[in-house]
Write a structure and sequence with these properties.
Layout (H helix, E strand, L loop, with lengths): L4 E6 L6 H12 L3 E3 L6 H8 L6 H17 L4 E5 L5 H10 L3 E8 L2 H10 L10 H7 L7 E4 L4 H11 L3
Helix pairs in contact: 1-7, 3-4
């Protein structure tokens, strides 16, 4: 039985994973892991060039992320990770020593496109949005959070759904 939890904030680029992860950490003091920090340089170069990742590209990234998640002793952690594909979702759920709870941050295509248009300093090419949305598979028991609300409301919704 897995006694520690990982809250995986998932969704396409621009949905607010990092913003919500930082806000949840401020509220709860649960450690926050930014999944982008675990990508190898080759993945970052590919995405910056507008080339979508395949699951084979994600192997090293997920290995590193799972190792970091499992090396932390906190009872509950927060992870920002796109987790778009069943491959990534299953690896996180099955290979981590933590019970994984997915939270899908939902925005419309238009809302995501608008956010990406004003975003600066991130390696992800905004041209990948359509491929990310086409790849996105919502896990069966994911918590769905409307990400077009104020951050405090999104955090409150997530905490309520988690029973906090």
């Amino acid at each position: 039985m897995k006694t520690h939890d990982a809250i995986i904030l998932m969704g396409p680029s621009g949905c607010g994973k990092s913003t919500i992860g930082n806000a949840l950490t401020e509220c709860t003091a649960w450690p926050f892991f930014e999944g982008d920090n675990f990508h190898p340089a080759a993945n970052i170069m590919k995405m910056a060039a507008g080339i979508a990742l395949e699951d084979t590209d994600r192997i090293v990234w997920i290995d590193a992320l799972i190792a970091a998640m499992d090396s932390n002793s906190a009872p509950r952690i927060i992870v920002a990770c796109s987790a778009l594909t069943p491959y990534v979702q299953q690896r996180l759920s099955n290979e981590s020593n933590r019970a994984v709870h997915f939270v899908l941050l939902q925005l419309t295509h238009e809302e995501l496109k608008a956010r990406l248009a004003t975003r600066r300093g991130h390696f992800m090419a905004s041209s990948l949005l359509d491929s990310q949305l086409a790849t996105l598979t919502q896990p069966e028991h994911a918590i769905a959070a409307k990400a077009n609300q104020p951050v405090a409301d999104i955090v409150a919704d997530i905490l309520a759904a988690l029973g906090e």
